[in-house]
Amino acid sequence: MGSDGDVDLYWSKSITSIQSDTGEENSIQYVLSFPISDNLQRIFVLMLIIGNFLSVNNGVVFIILGVYVKNTLESQMNFLQNYYHPRAIPTILIVTGLIMIATSFLGVKAAIGGHNIEESSEAKSAAFYFFMYWATACIAAYFILTAAFICFVEIYLLWNALGHGLLAGMGKYKRDEGIKNAIDQMQINYKCCGADNFTDWYNISWIDIEYIDLNDPNMNNNAKEDEYCGKDVPFSCCRMGELRPCVDKRIEDSSFHSKYTYPTDMTLNRIGCQEAVTNFLGHYVFSGIGGFVCVCLLIWIALVVISRYLQTALTQVSIGKLPVGWLIPYAKTYNAVQN
Hints:
56% helix; mainly alpha; Peripherin/rom-1; Tetraspanin; Tetraspanin/Peripherin; three-stranded antiparallel sheet; transmembrane helix
């Protein structure tokens, strides 16, 4: 793209000065400008090819993660519809993945076209493709940054949604089969019980009154206005791995159960589902995805910078000037040439 002798001569110049036909000196200063030698050009092109190959794979991973999060949230969080919208992360991940893949193919095309420049017309064509890649890569970087931001924000949103949505869903436990199955599945999968803890079930009428033996004094005392609220929890709260039968009814009544002392002999999961689900989906899944996205963002920023240097250097070559690359021009002054 330019001889090493020309590059060495130009290295000492911090300002590009161009003598115009009008007798004025056009002095432009650039941010982090430096000459691009043939060897450096080849290195940059190779880095672009490798980086875009990785970005294609990362884009595929984005799409897979988006589908996984979508299926996980929709299957387990359908009762949180009024409190949490589970499509934010899957949508941004899938869209960002598609943009990364498309942009990476354009980057490979630009890198291959700009590998060996012999004439100014070739430099002009290569500079155009690098500019197109650089512009779309900036857009892709914005989407990647947005995806990282959403991943970490969703942890807070999920915590709040679970706090309100779980209690609301528990109130519909006895009337809605879908919500009942979803809550039972959640409590089994995440080894949790209730929203904050198992005592949340004490204040919720989750057993239909028709299944209550009102002749039992204990149950009759807890039945009011066709609603039953006892110190009982659903079977899905039972802790796995216990040898004794699960105590999920009259939990605090030690005299009612054989060889049972509350709370030392409890057979229930003590952690609430708000904490358990947030720990897994938020602190592991969302944070893990967010960390991966941040790494991809760093790679993408490097590709944006490299492509910008190649694009500006090739633009200089296409108009017959030395191959100097820069990020952005930040000052322009015009001084009359003294005779």
